[in-house]
């Protein structure tokens, strides 16, 4: 282990400069104009892993390619599958970045750029830990598989089918994922739950075309008026969701888990500051951590219709739309929730008006049991890697494929987040602490050592 740690310490500058090369590739998966860049990132990752001595291949999917690599020459030892993603979110608004998103720079102990924390930088910690074992010890203490995909930010639409087709190739005793955050600086964290997502759109049409408001106004329905009444009926006045049955399947956290969250050093003031908001919202009388980790939400994420040009226009708009997105918690089933929303909106719609609800497919929530030897090993590894006792948290975000690993294949997942809550993932000036980058590499190296020793 000493030699592995030495390889990590002496590798620092090289690791950072390699990571910068990967960060310079604008692999925005949601933008068809960047499809070529997602492929360039995949090829970069494949070559990097092959140069390290792994068997590494690009796998085509109907969408963006993924990279699968392995080095399985530790017979009798467990197999670890490291999962992460090299695709990133769009960077707009560009003028809010203090340095260009795809020109990574080091600033105040951080590396700044799109993908630093989410997820190129975090995923790279495991790659470098594998390299350090190979350089320092000459071999790996466990069997290692690495699966890095290019479609996480668009919901991993093709990964479930790929997994089903490559069951044996991807089979592992445990999946290790670093795509979440620590609770705070110096508070390494094991994440025990992620929320799911389900999205839908509401389309209202009140007439075949926009109408003159002088000739028709007052005598026909207005699409925006109909839509806003529907939308405002989605929540109760106190901030809960009004959809019948919405909370029926919610599995409440245990008293013990709630108590452990209340013991975390959480500051509402800091939380508000990090949001740039004046006041808390949502369900009253619940701890903020419970609201973001263990309560479902329904957000109106976009709304439009009618006339939006300069000046005035005397019309009764014919069409209006809203895009909504829900975060789901353990117990909830995306399709069932979408059905409940459809029924609610149908009941709230005037009979004479066309109201369509289009529900997309969702990502189910996931929870990770804490009483496994995998979690025990990760706690030990985090403590050594970060020099502090880890805490157990959940996260409000989602990683689509985790449920598939856990529920379809019975593969236990470890969500070991090395980022920080204020890393601005998806936003301008995304960053990742370089000392946490190094601590993450040490943690991953310790984890492999720990799991290799156990059996
Ligand atoms: N790394 C995030 C997930 C995440 C976000 C974990 C915040 C913890 C806190 C991931 O890359 C992501 O952005 N996921 C999307 C999933 C969606 C595209 C299906 C999300 O949560 O919106
Ligand atoms: Mn991510
Ligand atoms: Mn993301």
Description:
The protein has 455 residues and is α+β, with helices and mostly antiparallel strands. The protein has two domains: 2-194 and 365-454, Aminopeptidase; 196-250 and 296-363, 2-Layer Sandwich (Alpha-Beta Plaits). The chain has 13 helices and 18 strands. The protein has helices at residues 2-23, 35-51, 120-137, 159-165, 167-170, 223-232, 255-262, 268-275, 288-294, 334-348, 373-386, 400-409, 434-454; strands spanning 55-59, 66-71, 79-85, 105-107, 110-112, 143-149, 174-177, 189-194, 196-205, 211-212, 297-305, 315-316, 319-328, 354-359, 366-367, 391-395, 413-417, 431-433. Strands 1, 2, 3, 6, 7, 8, 15, 16 and 17 form a nine-stranded mixed β-sheet that branches. The chain has a four-stranded antiparallel β-sheet with strand order 11-13-9-14, with helices on one face. Strand 1 (55-59) and strand 2 form a beta hairpin. The longest helix has 22 residues, at 2-23. The two termini are 17 Å apart. The structure holds ligand BES and manganese (II) ion (2 copies).
